[in-house]
Amino acid sequence: MEIVGRVPSEAGYAPPPVGYEGTWRFTAPALDSSVPQARHAVRELLVHQRAPVNDELVESLLLIVSELVTNAVRHAALLSPEIGVEVCLSRNWVRIAVEDNHPYRPVALMADQGGTGGRGLLLVTAITEEAGGAYDVDHTASGGKVVWAALPLPGAATSLPPSR
Length: 164
Description:
Elements (H helix, E strand, L loop, with lengths): L1 E4 L16 E8 L4 H15 L6 H22 L5 E8 L3 E8 L19 H12 L2 E6 L5 E8 L12
Helix pairs in contact: 1-2, 2-3
């Protein structure tokens, strides 16, 4: 993984960045094996950057990564053989984004009680709302999409993070 840039200031004033701030992006093939690899990469990044995250926040972020990467693998692989995963750490937020080349916006579906899937986006939405975070889908210039969720860091101000 490499740093692709610093997170812009949310209010125009740019205080000196703290050591853990930055944006990292990596790509992975749209395969089931990419799900645990993405989880591992995000966990290692948080540890390496010494991000001020507690165990509960880490588990929430890893669950979000799992669900977003799984959705991209299951629903976008035909049009997007490779997906992008981005982690942005700012002074107040951590944002996870998964990009693919499929043009359609995902929809959270109510799965039937006997079903084993279909609840991923409902789970991401619930985790995000409970944490006081934000979740959305942005379209890319190339016609694909970025599905992202941002959660506040412990003790952080809770103004909404900037969208991508």
